[in-house]
Design brief:
Shape: globular
CATH topology of one domain: Rossmann fold
Order of helices and strands: HEHEEEHEEHEHEHHEHH
CATH architecture of one domain: 3-Layer(aba) Sandwich
CATH superfamily of one domain: P-loop containing nucleotide triphosphate hydrolases
Radius of gyration: 20 Å
Number of helices: 9
Number of strands: 9
Strand order of the largest sheet: 2-7-1-8-9
Strand content: 15-25%
Helix content: 40-55%
Length: about 230
């Protein structure tokens, strides 16, 4: 099932209309992990979701690696030194964290929990290890989506088509892809990205269904109570 752009826009407009009873039902946000081997499409799908949906934001990780040209503090990463990162680990400030090559990366808990309370959805671009940590910390607030390529040959073709990596780097990415794919069964949803637009529609359908889960609709109890109370005219 997929949501087309027109249907999605109409649904957003209805929810934003203060005269629509559905807009009175507050919603708890959700956390969405999109994982895939490099080249399978998670970064493109994340970007398209962020551009199309104002209720989605990207998690901003903290990292100990140096800032790169063009990066902005607080937008791309929170740049901290090793001592500050270890203090944050010791104080339990991360929902998940991991060493990656020579540096550390972690997702701060405070902004994540604030987003959930405000009904904002947060996308994470993390691997299966980070996903396991995040699931242990956040439980049912987390929705895990794994994106598979249609074939390893197609994955190799897409990596070469990007034109950003050497053959040696691509060979390394292909070797890691098999290990990453082996964790597919640890996710709630598994999609095969044969067509980018179709895969995006499937991710949007997942979001639509998860947003409507009973326990995420924070105002539903009072809404139903008032609904029933008003069913017997005096």
């Amino acid at each position: 099932m997929a949501l087309d752009g027109v249907a999605g826009a109409k649904a957003t407009a209805r929810m934003a209309d203060p005269t629509n009873p559905a807009s009175l039902r507050r919603r708890r946000g959700l956390l969405v992990v999109l994982s895939s081997p490099s080249g399978a499409g998670k970064s493109t799908i994340s970007r398209m979701l962020l551009e199309a949906d104002p209720h989605i934001t990207m998690s901003v990780s903290a990292t100990t690696r140096p800032i790169r040209p063009g990066e902005v503090e607080g937008r791309d990463y929170h740049f901290v030194d090793e001592a500050e990162f270890q203090r944050m680990v010791a104080d339990g400030e991360f929902a998940e964290w991991a060493p990656v090559f020579d540096y550390h990366y972690g997702s701060p808990q405070a902004p994540i929990k604030a987003a959930l309370r405000e009904g904002q959805d947060v996308i994470f671009d993390i691997d299966w290890q980070g996903t396991q940590q995040l699931h242990a910390a956040m439980g049912e607030d987390l929705v895990r989506v794994f994106i598979l390529p249609p074939s390893m040959q197609e994955l190799d073709r897409r990596l070469h088509e990007r034109g950003t990596d050497t053959d040696e780097v691509i060979a390394g990415r292909m070797q890691r892809a098999a290990a990453e794919i082996s964790h597919w069964a640890e996710y709630d949803y598994v999609l095969i990205n044969e067509d980018m637009d179709e895969c995006l529609g499937e991710v949007r359908a997942i979001l639509a269904a998860e947003r409507l889960k009973r326990w995420r609709q924070a105002g539903l109890v009072s809404f139903v109570r008032d609904l029933v109370a008003g069913s017997h005219p005096q």
